[in-house]
Each structure stands twice: as C-alpha cells, then as structure tokens.
Amino acid sequence: QKSSPGQPEFYQAVEEVLESLEPLFAKEKQYLEHNIIERIIEPERQIMFRVAWIDDQGKVQVNKGYRIEFNSAIGPYKGGLRFHPSVSSGIIKFLGFEQIFKNSLTGLAIGGGKGGSDFDPKGKSNNEIMRFCQSFMNELYRHIGPTTDVPAGDIGVGAREIGYMFGQYKRLTGRYEGVFTGKKIPWGGSLARTEATGYGTVYFAQNMLTTSGQALEGKTCVVSGAGNVAIYTIEKLYQNCALPVTCSDSRGFIYHKSGINLETLKQLKETESACLSKYAEIHTDAVYTPVSSYPAGRNAVWSVPCELAFPCATQNELNQADARELLKNGCILVAEGANMPSTPEAVEEFLNAKIMYAPGKAANAGGVATSQLEMAQNASMIQWSFDEVDVRLKTIMKNIYVTASETANEFGQPHNLVLGANIAGFRKVADAMIDQGVV
Ligand code: NDP
User: For residue range 205-226, what is the model confidence (pLDDT) as tens digits?
Assistant: First the structure.
C-alpha cells in the first residue's frame, strides 16, 4: 500500500481477488514463478488530465479526468467512463482492476480499462454537459481507438454523453469508427446494449435458481439503484413474473409493495432526471424513505423483506449489518448488478450462510459482453436484431455461470462463485501474460 496510498477501494478489490486465488497458486506454480501477481496489480498505463470547461455563467470550471489502461493481455482495453463527484484515482483503479477479470470471464477478447471524472452531471444544463464532454475528449482522444482502447458508459454517462464524446472524437480525428460502445442505434449502437447489464444480471440469477430447482416466478425482489442497471433488472424481473418492490437513488428509496411501476420509474429517471420522492407523489400507496431517516450505518433498502436481492447502485452500498438483515428476512439469492456493492464482511456473511451469491464481476458482465458485440457489429458494418443480441447475451451469461461454478467445484468449494469467478477470470489473463513474455 506504500506505493499508492489513499486508494482503499483498490486494495479492497485486490485483497478479495488475491485471497480467492490462494488455492490456485498452491496447485499451479507457474503464476508465482512468473511473478504474475505483482505484474497484474500494476496498471499498464494511467492517464490523468485537466478538464477545463466553461459553465453557463461564463465561468471557467476545472475537473480531473482519468483513464486507466490496466491490462491488454487478451484484447484491447475495454471499460466504462464514470462521471460522479466521488470519482478518484483509487475508484478508477478498483474499477479497472475488476474489469480485467470480468472481461476475461465473458470469454471474449477484451482487456481491462476504466476512466471518468469527478465532474457532477447533476443540475448541469445540456450545453454544460456538452462542453464538458468535448473538453474531456480533447485530451482522451489521443489515447483511445477501435483496436486499442474502447470506452463505454457507467454512472453518470449514458447515450447523451457518449454522443457528445463520440462527436468530438470524430471532429478531432476525422474518423468514423467504433471507438465507443453504448452509442445510439442510428449512429452505430447495438440493439439490447441499453438493457444488457440489467437483463444479464437476471439471466445469471435465473441460472443459479434453475440449478437449485427453483424459478424467478413469484419471487419478491429488492433492487437498489434507479439508473440504467436497476431499471433493466426490474424490467427483466417483471418479464419473468417476479415482483420487484423497491428502487433507490442517492437521496432515498421507494418501497412499493404491489410492485415498482416501471413506466413511472423510466419517466422519472430516463426522461426527467427527477428525485424518487416524486414517485411516491404519483403512487400514493408507495412509501418513500429519505436517506436522512435510515438507521445509522445502514442502507434501509435492505431491510425490506425479500427472497432475491439485486444491488444495482454503487460500490459498498451493502454492509455486514445489511447482509444480516437480508438473511434474517429469508433472502436466498444476491446477484450484483453494480460493481463491488457488497463490503467484504457482507460477502463473508453470504458465503457462510451458503445462499446463492453472484459477485458483480460475474453477474453484471452482460453489459461489457454486449459492448463487445457492438464492436463486432461496427467492425463488420452490419447490425443484428434485438433478439439476435439477446440470445447471444443469454448464452454468454450461462457460460459465465457454468465457468464460475465449474471452477468453484474444481477447487472443492462448489458454493463459492467469488472463488470460481476470480480463478477462472485470472487464469486466462495470466496464461496470456506468460505466453506474451515479460512486457
Ligand atoms: P446510473 O448512473 O445509470 O445509475 C446509478 C444509480 O445509482 C442511480 O440511481 C444513482 O442515484 C445511484 N447512486 C450512484 N452513486 C450512489 C451513491 N454514492 N449512493 C447511493 N446511490 C448512488 O449508473 P448505472 O446504472 O450504469 O451503474 C450502476 C452500477 O452498475 C455501477 O456500480 C456501475 O459501475 C455498474 N455497472 C454498470 C454497467 C452498465 O452497463 N451501465 C455495466 C456493469 C456494471 P442518483 O441518480 O441519485 O445519483
């Protein structure tokens, strides 16, 4: 930790991965001989830059920009851009590190990367967002390309922001190419990319349930978040006759016992960018609880009784006390749509209780997998139908589940998908690094 202080999320992610790799290192010596651990935790390249832009009052504002190109052993760097005031070099580093193993698990040829800015899109006008994105791209464009590094969206970055950045890239380079994924359909996007992370998370849960002889139908589900991942998790749960009863944002959460109204949620979050309190004004049988009323040290959304839980907001949003509450209320499955939403202590609770637990790097890999399908469509200049992409997504999620659980079995811990996902993801990248020599 001495060489990079102040990056707690990065150390948390590294610790989790290295701990679960111990059985692999005990069995297969080549990884230690080639010093893969020290090599894999060091990013190949980190770019930090100034993003100066002019607000609507004519004042110059300055934010920090980041892109981390973590590992390219199995393909070009791939990973989203996050715009959120909490973004720091440690957050981007943890996300980039996780991305290496997630991308490897998809079975596709994509390396790990991530980026973003501490810019807060909340309350900004369209023009301010555009000027910020253009300024961000004025530096980033020289580091990315369709066969080198292909960014996408994440928290605070959706199709609008991708559009502004793609437009500026095109203007600076004079090239129309698949340098971003998450684009809108008329200018190179893939059908089903918007839905892919949420849908994929539910497909993953479905695979776990089927193995244990159960189904989604009739199950009460607690979902956190109200953004891209949460919305399409809720949509797919409804399509499978499950009942999602909650959603949340950074200001509070909604409990709607008869089921979250998806149309209202989409209208509030995708069109109006409104606060969730407005949901309870529209649906008077729903209850809105603001963060200020949460019990100390708790995220109150996890107190709602459920059989299935889908954390889809952000990192460390579910701690040990939350996990205990979920277990006490009879939760049998947790599938993570967000990246690292459960703290290490919460994960331990789930593993000790032997419930079905899917870590984010396996359960939410459907988004990046579909991004790779978008790259494939761009490269071949064709567009697949929604169903074609969705069928491929389903197959990829099934393969990830099978790979993670077979690997967990191989190491004698059939329940432990954290171990299974980490070992399977790591092995492919580490083998490629050995094949490619010391670079
Ligand atoms: P969005 O920006 O669309 O939505 C994020 C949601 O989480 C919003 O409801 C937001 O509330 C809430 N949120 C964000 N930060 C916090 C916080 N600090 N405390 C409480 N709530 C918070 O992002 P996505 O849905 O795209 O991403 C959600 C998670 O899924 C992230 O962890 C992301 O890395 C992960 N992910 C996303 C993928 C994708 O394809 N989009 C792919 C794989 C993983 P508010 O609106 O109030 O800020």
Answer: 999 999 999 999 999 999 999 9
Q: What is the pTM of this model?
A: 0.96
Residue 122: is it exposed, middle or buried by C-beta count within 10 angstroms (0-12/13-18/19+)? exposed
What number does CATH give the domain 195-358?
A: 3.40.50.720
Please state the ipTM of this predicted complex: 0.98
d(C-alpha 117, C-alpha 257), whole Å? 37
Task: Tell me the pLDDT tens digit for each residue of 148-162.
Answer: 999 999 999 999 999
Distance CA(332)–CA(324), nearest Å, equals 12
Distances (CA, A) of 188 to 180, 381, 382: 9, 9, 9
* Cα 194 to middle of ligand 1, angstroms: 13
Which protein residues touch ligand 1 with a CB less than 6 Å away? 86, 153-156, 197, 225-229, 249-251, 312-314, 337-339, 364, 367
| Per-residue pLDDT at 358 exceeds 60 | yes
- Minimal-distance CA residue to ligand 1 atom 21: 250
Query: Does the active-site annotation cover 184?
Result: no
* In the chain, domain spans: 8-177, 195-358
